[in-house]
Amino acid sequence: MKDYHTHHPGPHGGYLCAVTRADWEQISTAEGMIPCFGIHPWHAHETDAAELAFELDDWLTRHAQAGVGETGLDASPRHAGTLEVQRLLLHIHLGAAFRHERMVQLHGVQAWGELLEILRGRARCGTLPRVHLHAWNGSHEMAREFMLLGPVTFSVGLRELSHSKATERYARIPEGRLFPESDDHPENWARTVALLGLIRGGLK
Ligand SMILES: [Zn+2]
User: Fold this and answer.
1) Among the four 60, 121, 137, 156, which has the fewest Cβ within 10 Å?
2) Is the pLDDT of residue 28 over 80?
3) How many A from CA of 166 to the centre of ligand 1?
4) Is 60 in contact with 100 (CB distance < 8 Å)?
C-alpha cells in the first residue's frame, strides 16, 4: 500500500508533495516516489502567480510521471486572510493538472464546500482534472457528492482515523477511493494502515 500524501520520502513509495517552490528540485529526485509540484495554500501569499503558472507547465512537461500539489484552500482563522490568493493559485494548479492530465493533491480546511463548488464548475466546463482530497474529514454524504464528479479519491491519516465519527465517515467509501496517508508524520504510517484496515473491515 503506497502513501497517498506525504512530505517525506519513505519505503512505501507514494505521492511526495511540495510545500514551497524550494522543494521541487529535491522531491523530483526522490527514489521510488511520485513527485507532486505545487505550492501549499499556507504559502500562497508568498508566490508570484504568473511565475507559478509558467513553472508548473515547464516542470510537468519535463517530469511525465509527476502530479500536482499540494494546493487547495484553508479557511481556518489563521489562513482565511489569504483566501483570495489561495483561490487564484488553486485555479492555476487545477488548470495545469487538467492540461497535463495529472492528479492534483488538494488540502481543504474548513473549505470542502467551496472546493466542491469550484470542482463542480470545472466539471460543467469539462476541465476537471483527477482530484485527490487529502486529510479528508467531511461527511459520507459530502464524499458522495465529490465522487459524483468523477475520478475523485481520498486519503486519511491517523488524526482523521482517530476521530469519533471515523467509521461513519470512512467505512462506506467504495474500494479504490480511500487510501492511507502519513502527511508530515511518517512515524504514524503502520498505525494508520492498521486502523484504516480495521475501520474498513479488512482493506487489502
Ligand atoms: Zn500535506
Assistant:
1) 121
2) yes
3) 20
4) yes
CA distance 89 to 102: 16
Cα 121–chain centre separation: 19
Q: Which helix (H) or strand (E) holds 105?
A: strand 103-109
pLDDT tens column, 51-89 = 999 999 999 999 999 999 999 999 999 999 999 999 999
> 182 alpha carbon to ligand 1 midpoint, in Å?
9
Question: How many angstroms separate the alpha carbon of residue 133 from the centre of ligand 1?
Answer: 10
Spacing, Cα 196 to ligand 1 middle (Å): 18
Query: In this model, does residue 202 exceed pLDDT 60?
Result: no
- Using omega within 30 degrees of 0 as the cis cutoff, is the peptide bond preceding 70 cis? yes
- DSSP labels, 3-53: EEEESS--TT-EEEE-SSGGGHHHHHT-TTEEEEE---GGGGGGS-HHHHH
Retrieve residue 122's grid coordinates. 470545472
Q: Which domains does the chain have, with CATH numbers?
A: 3-200 (3.20.20.140)
Segment 25-43 shows an average pLDDT of: 98
